[in-house]
Design a protein that fits this description.
Two copies of one chain form a homodimer. With 414 residues, chain A is of the alpha+beta class. The first copy, chain A, has helices spanning 10-21, 38-51, 98-113, 140-145, 151-156, 165-175, 200-204, 242-260, 296-304, 306-314, 334-346, 362-365, 392-411, and strands at 25-26, 30-31, 57-60, 66-70, 80-85, 122-127, 189-195, 208-214, 216-225, 229-230, 265-267, 271-274, 280-281, 284-293, 318-327, 330-331, 351-356, 371-376.
Amino acid sequence: MTAGQPDIDPDRLWARLMRMAEIGGFPGGGVNRQALSDQDHAAWRQMLDWAAPLGLEPATDAAANLFLTLPGRDRALPPVLIGSHLDSQPTGGRFDGVFGVLASLETVEALARAGLWPRRDIAVVAWMNEEGSRFAPGMMGSEYFAGVRGIAAIRDARDAEGAICGAEIDRLHAAFPAVPLRAPFVPTAYIEPHIEQGPELEAAGVPIGVVSGIQGKVTCEVTLIGQRGHAGTAPMAGRKDAVMAFARVATALQDHMLQADPGIRFTIGRVEVHPNAPSVVAGEVVFRIDLRHPSNDVLDAAAEVIAPIVAQGALPCAGTVRVLVHAPSNDFDPDLCARLAAAAGGRDIGFRPMASAAGHDARHLAAICPSAMFFIPCKDGISHDPAESATPADVAAGAQVLLDTVLALAEQAP
Amino acid sequence: MTAGQPDIDPDRLWARLMRMAEIGGFPGGGVNRQALSDQDHAAWRQMLDWAAPLGLEPATDAAANLFLTLPGRDRALPPVLIGSHLDSQPTGGRFDGVFGVLASLETVEALARAGLWPRRDIAVVAWMNEEGSRFAPGMMGSEYFAGVRGIAAIRDARDAEGAICGAEIDRLHAAFPAVPLRAPFVPTAYIEPHIEQGPELEAAGVPIGVVSGIQGKVTCEVTLIGQRGHAGTAPMAGRKDAVMAFARVATALQDHMLQADPGIRFTIGRVEVHPNAPSVVAGEVVFRIDLRHPSNDVLDAAAEVIAPIVAQGALPCAGTVRVLVHAPSNDFDPDLCARLAAAAGGRDIGFRPMASAAGHDARHLAAICPSAMFFIPCKDGISHDPAESATPADVAAGAQVLLDTVLALAEQAP
């Protein structure tokens, strides 16, 4: 224990991570807890049950973000905001997002149990739909909070089964009538802990990565329109086969991206074929492109060639591209980064600066207040997968760095 | 009217086709009436309602084929069997399959209303699951009837939602308790009318195509196994991306087939990506190959290269191929073909010999009894699509050719 600083409880935190992994958990360690689903409701209920005995104030907003606030001594000051997200990919793991939320809850719990009441409110947040796997695009909740996207556009989104995001938000709010609505506010600072989702920290044997910034990201939806036909009769020469057009377009795009810059990340993760019947030449394929790079120049140049490559490769089918997300790279607040590094150093916990290859809600918070992130290692760099794993020691180290940093921030004078 | 031959009623037949198109019909003229679905139940009910006033005897069998028999004067003789299938593709049209069933019903109805009672039974059949879009493979009903596939294997099939074919057969039987079970029998002949599903007859302006045989077909399921990863973090160089492996394999396979023989039909109509999330590098892709050619030698040679091309193209993913159907080409009975041609000629209806590029239940019947098929034109060769269309005149011509041919067959002495 550092003099004057409370300690987090590593066993309590780990037990809560394992408890949360049961909500939406499936055999093999995986988690399916998508935004606004019944599993998401259950995660809210669990968070509220943990928050109640600590006297945390629950609140939500129009985008169904969840806030749990430890009241400060001066309620008029802007709060410190900490957290991440509770939603997962459909075949996600036990740490992505939920580690940041539970490390944040542990921070305020350790303070409350130590009888420490900082000057400023400390709000723990769980952002709605960070993953974007159920409703596109991801990070809707932080986009709303930061004023990047209006609530009408968020409510209009539909999932693959046709469920409307707005109706699902209303369903969540109706399930928690005791959680009041709260308007968006400007925090004094935002800090988001997360697993790295890459191999760097584990390979280096370093528990804390202080994130300097997030690489930019473009996501597109591509639609290829051909002509349905009978697999046994339609002559090959006259076909407009949307699946074959997809194969050509996907190969051409990847070939281009691999040659353009070695740092580009190019992924086609979602493909829908219509009518998707074995003996029908497909008339339509819709797929998503996920494109990332730390340099905005490289990212923009790569994004610009997508439409012409699609149009050319799709022939004789028609190909169109719709940009869903265009998020430039961003840098985090240097002072907050220095504070995180100092907190790690103060506990003799190893740390290093690094960039984030993955997008996070902190991207949007950085536009409205000083923001920062730090990572802990995850096994083999695997994420968005049931094999996603982190060690109890790294989880505890992350939560302690957060607590020490937040306590100092929350005591700051205006 | 030809001397001594009854005429079919073209208006009644057309009205019934349009009525049947409402069962499973969706806006734009399309039909979704898949095997053993609620829509299939409704089609059975409609068929039984039409059959009852004619005194046709209903029956089914273990594979849920439907038989409606016009009793002959000598019940001991093997019957003439005529028909096709009532099930459709998920986005199918108004004529594929159902034309043959309703032309067959019209044949026995015209005979019954004319007071003509041929020597032999004439059984109208609707085969279960010709399309194979819900349960794989297609033509299960005729496979069972012809002894090609055992009932246990058919009952074990599952659809994409996990429904078990055997349970769905039992559900159909339970819905029609008044339809007795009948053992498979050996007909004296089988004739199947169908739309062409290709452009040949329409282009030639000929209403009847007498089918000499069906081209061979191989269907395979290919599984590509990669490694899931985060789209923003997993370095491109180390990825095992199953979607990109699919793009390579699909392109390599099509390139090979186009060069190997101009008559090959090669289709990938069904593709499933797992987990199919926008920001997850896909860990698995499962897809179907539909491969056809009139020559068994060409077909077998083409099928043999699939596995090595998949294994090579999938790298660094693993690719495996499972053959679901291997159906060689078959020839139909020359005497029956001659009878169909003579019937068309006797009515001054144009006809020509042709091969079938599509597979049909008649393929399996040909192994147990003299069998034949004839086609009528369909608009622009389009099938398995809501745009599937045929003219009332061609529909009527087909039914009349069937009636005239069947009447002679049913009067034949043993």
